[in-house]
Amino acid sequence: MKIFLTGGSGFIGKNFYQLALKKGHFIYATSRKKRENRIKNMKWLKGNINFNWKKELSDSDILVHMASTGINKEYNEDKYNTNVFKSLDLIKNCIRFKCKNWLIISTSSEYGIRLNDKNVKFSKYSNRIPTDDYGMSKAMFSDQCIKLAKKFGCKVRVMRIFPVYGKGENEKRLYPSLIKAAKRGKNFFVKNPLEKRDFTNVNFVSQAIYDAMNFNKKKFKISQIWHVAENKPQFVKNFVENYWKIYKAKGKLIFNKKSKIKFNHISTINSLWK
Prior knowledge:
With 274 residues, this protein is of the alpha/beta class. The chain folds into 2 domains: 2-165 and 199-230, NAD(P)-binding Rossmann-like Domain (Rossmann fold, 3-Layer(aba) Sandwich); 174-195 and 232-264. The chain is 33% helix and 22% strand.
């Protein structure tokens, strides 16, 4: 299979393409920076996602769209430019150049954050109330993808990924900064110990995305919503303490005493990928 991949240089993207290459697929991967083509069966394409990739899209069996801007809370106009408008240009080019299978990597942030609701578990039928521009922009785009797929006879899967951690993550994020402190014997401050999340390992996510590329099932509808989560929700405090023990850290964990309970990014078991 030939895959047109955006966001291949990112955290999830790298893990995914390594798996796909091992399985024998060919990958066209976009990047805003020039990258050397040193990997067998993989071709890097320098340029924005909304460039006219006529040759590559025409030659691809499926689009795997991961590229997006910003999970930080600050307003950033580029979140909408990239996550909605440029992404829609890409989809329109897919339609134009007959790449009719789309795998859209979205986020549990589409649902927003719920405070003090112990029973909150999101299914694909749950009301989406994004609480930041990142979640809003991703929700807007995924909705448009579904509409365009129905209109032009294409197939789309929207994969709402729950909080991902693991090898290759940005060093400023919780997991890598935690492991770094543990290995160095330093103390570690936990800002939101009472936030409950469905932590999902990047290897689990990559395998789910790979499995989702199979669009050939007889009962496949025009559009499908998938959740990708391990369904093992836990408080950040418990997550941190577990890895602190695994690495036999000598430093101390310091928990923010002003932290409030938050129940967010928790999936229902009946909407899991596995």
